[in-house]
Amino acid sequence: MPVEARERGILKLWFGARPEVLAPVQLDEHHRTLADYEQLAESVGEVLSRGQREALEFGIRYERMMVDF
Q: Which of 6, 45, 46, 56 is deepest in the core (most CB within 10 A)?
């Protein structure tokens, strides 16, 4: 089964949104989410199950990728 990744900001770009308008809002949101995930990893990371930790690490990598994008 193929994996689907749906990112609202990317879809908006596809349908004609202007990057110079969209990017600042999206960037702020991804920075906030990344900070939340990193704080969570720092505060409870050692008590998470392996699957929870891997899911959280994926979320952190994803948010970093979106910030870089």
A: 56
